[in-house]
Design goal:
By secondary structure, this protein is mainly beta. It is globular, with a radius of gyration of 17 Å. It has one domain: Jelly Rolls. The strands form 3 sheets. A 6-stranded antiparallel sheet has the order 1-2-3-12-6-9. A 4-stranded antiparallel sheet has the order 4-11-7-8, with no helix packed on it. The chain has 1 helix and 14 strands, in the order ββββββββββββββα.
Amino acid sequence: MFQDIQDTLVRAEAPWVETAPGSRVKVLWIGRETGTWASLHHWQKGYAAPPHKHLAGAHVYIVSGKLQVRTGVLNAGDYVYEPSGVLHDATTALEDTIFLFICHGAVLFFDENGFTRYTNWEVMEKLRAPEAPPQAQAAE
């Protein structure tokens, strides 16, 4: 039975992947058939995710810390569901924060000039992929 779940098992000691200065992620699960993913995020105090739009619903649970989301603050133990179509300004870590994020589709990011990038299950899968082992070198 244990071998059947190896693809979804993420150990506590799994490394965090830096996605930007002040932002790290552990990808926990990817549902290729639905486009859903689950990830654990660690944002340092002051990190701000740029303005973005959710193209599908997303669940957020604050494990520790505080996030400024639109006009409110999410504290450790808080949960919020953001429905498809939600568009909001930057989300900022008011202190070092860890949160669980379960998203059912793409998220589009913007700056003052318009669309800049997106994230979806495929982007998250690339973050989860283990590094390629070093290539063996031929002896001379």
